[in-house]
Amino acid sequence: MEVKVPDIGDFQDVPVIEVLVSAGDEVAEEDPLITLESDKATMEVPSPSAGKVTELKVSVGDRVSEGAVILLLDSVDGHKPSGGGGAEAPPKQEEPEAPAEPAEPAPHADVSVQVAVLGAGPGGYTAAFRAADLGLSVALIDRGEVLGGVCLNVGCIPSKALLHVARVLAEAEELEESGVSFGKPEVDIDKVRSWKESVVGKLTGGLESLAKQRKVQVVRGTGEFTSPNTIQVGDTVVGFEHCIIAAGSEAAMLPDLPDDERIMDSTDALEITDVPERLLVIGGGIIGLEMATVYDALGSKVTVVELLDQLIPGADKDLVRVLEKRIKARYEHIHLGTKVESVTASDDGITVKYGDGEETFDRVLVAVGRRPNGKAIGAGKAGVNVTDRGFIEVDEQMRTNVPHIYAIGDVAGEPMLAHKATHEGALAAEVINGENVSWDARSIPSVAYTDPEIAWTGLTETQAKEQGIEFEISTFPWAASGRALSMGRSEGMTKVIAEPETHRILGAGIVGINAGELIAEMVLAIEAGADAEDVSLTIHPHPTLSETVAFSAELANGTITDIMPKRARTK
Ligand code: NAD
Asked: 555 to each of 52, 412, 454, 480, 532, how far by Cα in Å?
């Protein structure tokens, strides 16, 4: 049978952007064969019949119109091709001379959908909801009892609930300087934990009803691919036309750690089973320092050991220095450039050898990074490539090497951030819906919700130097901000990294309370291609911390000059 391009409306000479089958492939009726892309939409041409592809007649880059022959198909049931007319299928042979290869039966499916989403974290549920809103039938698969993934259940949200408690405790203590003293706080750790859980519960419960409203079928259990079009979830087979892998990541642990409940990953640490007298945090990255902030406020004596010579290695040194100064005064020790040699458990506690000595702690948090879950989903059965580290590589439309399978979020690459995952999830759903969209965000902000917070976006000073990019740095110290002074927190700074000639904003960094909220303005500035003048001529409310963003832009622009000299750096 000749399979031809069906009626595709008024389109002529439309380019073939993908060929989804090869000679020798068995296809089921309606399986996509090729993808065409007009200036308005991408469309897949489905197989009119089940059968075996004997010869391809088109390749990527060819231009086709209605009636063009796509391929020759040895049809199993002798169906005539729909559309394109001109089906000249040979008469079905009653008895083939040679025994034909057994046609692979279309895989059985208990749930059949257009889009299966594997993983219900922020990326996964955003993808599922967007796809459903676009009118596609969707299954959302997750092994957790509740939706929301790591972020909602054991990550971003519970940590922010605890960080709020930490902030209020620290503020109450600091108010002494302003003439108000409270008694020593009494912490009921069980009540703190159940308050945190109630915050999580409100969000995860909300997700269940959002899924229901959209008729997204939630399939609970661990999902693994069994073919390019099926995922096995317990006893249930989910069959799909398109799949979005949103399987996330898990905490990386150090090798050879004793199996002891006093050695925690971030999930355990968020449980706050108790407030240890002495806590060691291994890894001075975002997770380690956020949890250190919580335990310090609750009363633990905290020590941090970091392998590199800087805390939060992705952020610029001058921003980190401000945080370091504050926590050095509060924590027991901060060891930089220090490697942990061994960890042993005894009745006395957890003994850790590092640097020149060894210390015993009541609990140890290991926060040395996260590992993508690409190797745990049977990706090979679907033909999806996974790197040695467990990432799944994708193109600008979030497609993997298998064109109808997409990957988003932590499993699709760094940075492992929920807001990157949600952006990618919506994008993948739109691509599946045939929209001509791709990744084109200019910057992804990062925020460490420590005390003070550190936030940055776009180009960092470190990256600009490494890449030999010409830049100018303008830094506004919060000691000159009325609002920061009146809040008793004037240690912060806001800096902007701009192109020397045009003053176009290339990046920004903020350290100080609420830096995570303040950075959003600079993300928008970079996204919109704004220059420093655009930001400085925007009227900011007075007195607010947001003025520091405007003042840093004024420094870049040259409209104020007397606060801090501009730092220039040329190639
Ligand atoms: P990270 O990579 O940010 O930090 C891990 C730190 O551990 C690094 O500084 C690293 O040098 C150090 N380290 C590694 N091995 C070590 C060793 N043997 N001894 C001592 N130090 C060692 O990882 P993380 O803090 O675990 O966070 C994981 C991911 O989750 C990151 O991608 C992070 O961006 C993301 N995350 C983001 C947020 C947020 O946006 N607020 C919060 C939590 C996690």
From this structure: 68, 38, 21, 13, 9
CA of 283, closest atom in ligand 1? 7
What contacts 214, CB < 8 A, 6 or more positions away?
128, 129, 132, 133, 138
- pLDDT at residue 106, as a whole number: 62
Lookup result for tokens 């940075």: 415
Pocket flag, ligand 1, residue 287 (CB < 6 Å):
yes
Distance CA 245, CA 237 (A): 16
Q: List residues with catalytic annotation.
A: 542
- Residues 354 and 368 sit within 8 Å (Cβ to Cβ): no
pTM value? 0.82
Contacting residues for 539 by C-beta, under 8 A, at least 6 apart: none
CATH superfamily of the domain spanning 263-368:
FAD/NAD(P)-binding domain (3.50.50.60)
Report which of residues 454 and 29 the model is more confident about.
454
What are the residue ranges spanned by the domains of the chain? Answer: 2-75, 111-150+192-250+372-432, 263-368, 446-569
Q: Which residues contact 153 (CB under 8 A, 6 or more apart)?
A: 144, 146, 200, 204
For the segment 403-429, the average pLDDT, to the nearest whole number, is 98
Instruction: Give the chain's length.
Output: 571
The 10s digit of each residue's pLDDT in 77-122 is 654 433 333 333 434 434 434 434 444 556 789 999 999 999 999 9
| Superfamily of 446-569 according to CATH | FAD/NAD-linked reductase, C-terminal dimerisation domain (3.30.390.30)
**Is the CB of residue 370 below 6 angstroms from any atom belonging to ligand 1?**
yes
- Ligand 1 contact via 415 beta carbon (within 6 Å): yes
| Mean pLDDT, range 298-321, rounded to an integer | 97
Between the CA of 106 and the centroid of ligand 1 the distance, in Å, is: 44
Structure tokens at 114: 């257009």
Q: Identify the burial level of 33 via C-beta atoms within 10 angstroms of its C-beta, where 0-12 means exposed, 13-18 middle and 19 or more buried.
A: buried
The rounded Å distance from CA 145 to ligand 1 centre is 27
In angstroms, rounded to a whole number, what is the distance separating the alpha carbons of residues 161 and 449?
11
Give residue for tokens 């110290």.
477
Could you tell me how far CA 434 lies from the centroid of its own chain? Answer: 23
Tell me whether domains 111-150+192-250+372-432 and 263-368 share a fold.
yes
DSSP of 63-96, one letter per residue? EE-TT-EEEEEEESS-PPPSSSS---PPPPPSS-
For 440-477, the pLDDT digits (tens) are 999 999 999 999 999 999 999 999 999 999 999 999 99
